[in-house]
Amino acid sequence: MKVIVRSTLWGLLSVGFCCPVARAQAVVKGVAYTVEAGTFLATDASNPFWVRSNQYGEIPLGAQGFTIRGQAKKEYSTLARKKFSYGYGLRAVMNVGTTNQFLVSEAYAKVRYGAFELYAGRRRETQGLVDSVLSAGSYIWSGNALPMPKLQISIPAYTPILKNGLLAIKGNFAHGWFGTGDSVKNYFLHQKSLYVRIGKPNWRFKIHGGFNHQVQWGGAVLYPRYEGSQRITNFGSDLQTYGYVVLGRSLYADDSLVVQNGQASAEGGNRVGNHLGTVDLGLEYEDDQNKWFLYRQSIYEAGALFRLNNIADGLTGLSFSRKQASQGVLRVVLEYLHTSSQGGPYLSNRSTIEQLRGAEDYFNNGRYIDGWVYRGQTIGTPFIMPLRYTTGLSQNLDKNTNLIVNNRVNAVTLSVMSRIRLVDLLTRISVSENFGKYSTPLPSGVGQTSVQQQVSVPFKKYTFITTLAYDNAGVLKQNLGLSFLVRQTF
User: Fold this and answer.
1) Residues 27-62: pLDDT tens digits?
2) Least buried of 81, 318, 384, 479, by fewest C-beta within 10 Å?
3) For the chain, how big is the Rg over CA atoms in Å?
4) According to the CATH classification, is domain 32-218+273-462+473-489 in 2.40.160.130?
């Protein structure tokens, strides 16, 4: 979960370190209410990168505006003996200025029984092995876009499956609704994940591993599309199609299922829908004072990872936190995102060498033309963004400014959380090199540096949060931005 203006660093510490004060407050008060008001200013017409990125779609691209937000949230009971508990959340945002909008960014109900959780609605989440407090964004599901409505059953926290606690698992299985995009309306999300932790809870070393699987599927076609002489009006959405989606089954041997009465079950004999995700590994070490977490997310989308052609691509991170510290540097995260390989420039098909498996064109898809985007914003890492968000590039690169035109990116991000007395600080700097994509490369790689300094100060019943952010001229326009937010929780 990334916070720039939406959540104070104190709130982040409550999540990241399981602060007992925050949990006790939830039990006593039952429901926590939060109200916020603030403004966003910038020298350019857009908000800087680290003001608007990973904000769950709440902060618009356009600067020069005001925001008012309200939230009500009930968390689970923290009584140890209580197996059944319920909670809910509702959050609304009104932005006024260059962009005028009203958003219901969270609206969900959840129930828990033992290790299992069921929830329905919009809810802020990230997915993948990553530092959930300071990461620049998990590759596949970063919290950059507005939460998607979902129905989900999960084991949200590692749960032992052996009595001695040596082996623990967590994961989810979900069905979501994309709604209507540029090319398809009323299409769906299938999502699942499974992660395993090896190591007893009291062991200093633990190993993590697992995967997540995302699929865009179904929906009615909004543009003329043909398979042979047959026009496709709908992509399959029946129970049989859902089975192919869940299993990720290849239909190369089942060409008869490609088009039936205008409904397409597969794209030219390929798998049903747009499949993508990451395979993750992590190594954790902690003692009484410190905790280290090394993680790696490897990307799969069109088969290159199976052949190890794009093994260079992925997100690598190292997180360090001082568990008992209350002053000075509290947490540091260094990450390297590499997406420029994509298995090479040559796309495999049946008439070429299948092992090539290149030009994966991350987050783009020939069927769901919007790509891995929800409500105009990238669902995954914010470094891969639609054309209209790359304000420093020519908007003539494509007639559709919602398309992703720069998905070959190498980026380093350093994030530091610290505290001086009662003042919380978040410092972040990212440096990236951007190559466009194989079909429309940028001339020689475009550099981009973005910096953020956030200061959070509590005063009586209020918290005052100021963020200063800067982008140099590159993929983004040169821009200096300032945001100011006041929050009260009661």
Assistant:
1) 335 899 999 999 999 999 999 999 999 999 999 999
2) 81
3) 23
4) yes
Q: In a 3-state reduction of DSSP, which class is residue 251? A: coil
Are 195 and 171 in contact by the 8 Å Cβ rule? The answer is yes
Own/partner long-range contacts of 387-394 (Cβ < 8 Å, ≥24 apart): 388/61, 389/61, 390/475, 390/476, 391/44, 391/46, 391/476, 391/477, 391/479, 392/446, 392/448, 392/473, 392/474, 392/475, 392/476, 392/477, 393/442, 393/446, 393/475
| pTM to 2 decimal places | 0.88
Spatial separation of the C-alpha atoms in residues 20 and 483, rounded to whole Å: 30
How many Å apart are CA 263 and CA 298, to the nearest integer? 34
Which pLDDT belongs to residue 283?
98
Q: What is the pLDDT of residues 387-413, one digit of tens each?
A: 999 999 988 888 888 899 999 999 999
Between 257 and 126, the more confident residue is 126
Which residues touch 326 (CB under 8 Å, ≥6 apart)? 419
Sign of CA dihedral 39, 45, 48, 53: positive
Is the separation of the CB atoms in 304 and 358 below 8 Å? Answer: yes
Does residue 109 carry a pLDDT above 50? yes
Specify the pairing of strand 290-300 against strand 101-113.
unpaired
Residue 212 contacts residue 193 (beta carbons within 8 Å): yes
Residue with tokens 């908007």: 395
Digit-coded pLDDT (tens) for 312-370: 999 999 999 999 999 999 999 999 999 999 988 776 554 455 556 777 899 999 889 99
For the record, the structure tokens of 394 come out as 């020519």
Tell me the helices (H) and strands (E) count for the chain, helix number first.
4, 26
Residue type, position 476, single letter? L
Strands (E), 78-199: 84-97, 101-113, 116-122, 150-160, 167-180, 184-198
Asked whether 479 and 468 are in contact (CB, 8 A), the reply is: no
